[in-house]
Write a structure and sequence with these properties.
The protein contains 10 helices and 16 strands.
Length: about 375
């Protein structure tokens, strides 16, 4: 009897038995948690993409674009933001669902799942409604976030064809190492860039408290990247940053673009807190040169451009004519800059000061126009 009692009370090996019994439950619980988290992230990404598509679609319809073209563009944008093929998504565009100027976007796509707790695939569907025009305190307002990536390499000291009315005569660079004395004096590319951007910022400032809420930031580069001026609604501080730039050194845009990828991270939430709606996001890239080691730095820059565009940011690029390099080098550099832009109509080639100023003015006019607002 004593032997039987000892056998009954002996617990050696119980842990292994219990572990064998419980382990399947623990593993399945972990898989369920991972699947749930993955579905949540995918739905959040899809909702953000739908919001961006709704805003863009409302703006296009406000501008009178063809409805069929708008629908096709909405599908392409939704797929691009999610990083999947347009063939895998469906998009529905309905107008007038919440008033005469509204557009409702419903986007969906099918994503794979483990199949342990249901079907092997799950449909993710989100919707968003936007309204043409934006009302804040009964005032029409345009809102934007604009970030500048600016080349300050040595070739930006090259003279342009624009006369500097503030100087009678001066020495300017006509070639990389050759200065000439000119009367009258001509503005350098750096000076033209600063004056053109100053005119744009003057527009921001003039409308700031009435019809425009703008947030701006900037980063400059030469062969190395400079300290960033982060996004802020104090646009005058961004202009001060730009005004202090000077031309020197070589060219490498890749590190600046790596930093620019993170520039827009908080913009949607900050705009929502300020005026109840997300705002269009823009990046303006201005350069006149070819990257050092272009076989390395051009692909890096273009990868960052793609990552930034995937965040719903519209990229404008301006390539300034450069007489310091051979035609072949300029052609390759210009191709990279053009590819970085969101579309061909958002790329500008400025052969002189007037064309550069016109490009900046066009970007400013488009960006400060009244935008669409998310209402649901």
């Amino acid at each position: 009897m004593a032997i039987l009692l000892r056998f009954w009370r002996d617990q050696v090996g119980n842990f292994a038995v219990l572990t064998a019994l419980i382990m399947p439950l623990l593993l399945s619980g972990g898989v369920f948690a991972l699947e749930f988290a993955s579905a949540y992230v995918k739905r959040s990404d899809a909702q953000a993409a739908t919001d961006a598509v709704a805003l863009a679609t409302a703006k296009k319809l406000m501008d009178g674009e063809n409805s069929n073209a708008v629908q096709a563009a909405a599908k392409a944008q939704f797929a691009e933001l999610l990083g999947i093929s347009p063939d895998l998504v469906t998009i529905s565009v309905r107008t007038g669902t919440d008033g005469p100027d509204t557009v409702e976007i419903t986007g969906s796509y099918t994503t794979a799942s483990t199949g342990l707790f249901g079907p092997a695939s799950t449909q993710i569907q989100t919707s968003s409604t936007a309204k043409g025009g934006t009302t804040v305190s009964a005032k029409k307002i345009a809102a934007l976030s604009m970030y500048f990536v600016l080349d300050r390499s040595g070739s930006m000291i090259e003279m342009t064809d624009q006369i500097d009315t503030k100087k009678y005569a001066c020495y300017v660079y006509k070639y990389p190492t050759i200065t000439i004395y000119t009367d009258p004096c001509y503005l350098t590319k750096m000076e033209v860039m600063k004056r053109s951007l100053a005119a744009l910022f003057a527009k921001f400032k003039a409308n700031r408290n009435d019809t425009l809420y703008a947030r701006t930031g900037a980063i400059s580069f030469h062969l190395y990247v400079d300290t960033e001026h982060p996004m802020t609604d104090r646009t005058d501080t961004t202009l001060t940053y730009i005004d202090k730039l000077f031309a020197a050194g070589g060219t490498n845009s890749a590190p600046a673009f790596e930093i620019a990828e993170k520039a827009f991270a908080k913009e949607d939430s900050l705009h929502l807190a300020k005026h109840g709606s997300v705002a269009p996001k823009y990046l303006v890239y201005i350069t006149d040169g070819a990257n050092a080691y272009p076989w390395i730095n051009d692909p890096k820059t273009l990868k960052s451009c793609s990552n930034i565009k995937a965040q719903g940011v519209i990229i404008y690029t301006i390539f300034l004519q450069n007489r310091f390099f051979t035609d072949a080098v300029v052609k390759d550099a210009e191709t990279m800059v053009r590819t970085c832009a969101s579309s061909t109509d958002r790329y500008f080639r400025a052969g002189n000061a007037v064309e550069f100023s016109a490009a900046i003015n066009t970007i400013g006019s488009v960006a400060t126009a009244t935008q669409a607002k998310l209402i649901r």
